[in-house]
Design brief:
Layout lengths: L2 H12 L6 H13 L8 E7 L5 E7 L4 H18 L16
Antiparallel strand pairs: 1-2
C-alpha cells in the first residue's frame, strides 16, 4: 500500500458516515423519550362580560388526577366566591339548613 492509499484509508476511518433517515428518527425518538417532563402549568383567566359578571377560565395540569381535581375545584370555588354572579342567590353560611 502506498502512502497515498494509506492516507486515504485513514481519512475514511475518521470521517463519520452519514446516518440514514431511520437512524436519525430513532435518535430523535430516544431523546424525546428520555427528556425530563416539564413542570405542570396553571392558568387562571378572569374576564368581565357585558352583564358585569366575572367569567372564570381555569387550566390546571398535573400527573395526579385526584390532586388535579382537588386543586382545580378549590381554586374555582374560591374565585367564584370572590366574584359572585350579579343574579346569584346568596347561600347561607350554615350550609342552607334552617
Amino acid at each position: 500500500m502506498t502512502d497515498k492509499q494509506a492516507a486515504a484509508a485513514a481519512d475514511a476511518e475518521h470521517t463519520e458516515r452519514r446516518q440514514t433517515p431511520t437512524e436519525r428518527y430513532h435518535e430523535l425518538a430516544m431523546s424525546v423519550a428520555n427528556r425530563q417532563p416539564s413542570q405542570p402549568e396553571h392558568a387562571l383567566t378572569l374576564t368581565r362580560n357585558a352583564k358585569g359578571d366575572v367569567q372564570v377560565e381555569l387550566t390546571v395540569r398535573s400527573a395526579d388526577l385526584a390532586e388535579l381535581e382537588t386543586d382545580a375545584t378549590a381554586t374555582f370555588d374560591r374565585v367564584c366566591a370572590k366574584y359572585p354572579r350579579a343574579d346569584a342567590v346568596p347561600v347561607p353560611s350554615d350550609g342552607g339548613e334552617s
